[in-house]
Amino acid sequence: RQKQLILMLDRGLSNRDIAADVEARCRQLGVIVNVPLPHVIRLVPPLTITDEELGRGLTRLGTAIQECTDD
User: Phi first, then psi: what are they for 21, rounded to 5°?
Assistant: First the structure.
């Protein structure tokens, strides 16, 4: 049986267009996420991810969310 880490973030992104925009922007920034529900962002990093890689990925995710939700 394979082990994996799954993180689900509920950011209140009730607008599917915003969630899709966050997903697209993350891909542009080199972070792969998906949006299984309109208000949920799912990350599935490898178990071998380093603290540095995790930090970079989360920073990029934060950037994408901020850019896509700024009015």
Answer: -65, -40
Tokens 């922007």, residue? Answer: 25
CA count, 13 A, side-chain hemisphere, 56: 8
pTM > 0.85: yes or no = no
Question: What is the CB neighbour count within 10 angstroms for residue 13?
Answer: 22
Distance from chain centroid for Cα 18: 12
Nearest Cα residue to 22 out of 31, 6, 51, 53: 31
Give dist(CA 39, CA 23) in Å, integer: 12
- Over residues 41-65, the pLDDT tens digits come to 899 999 999 999 999 999 999 999 8
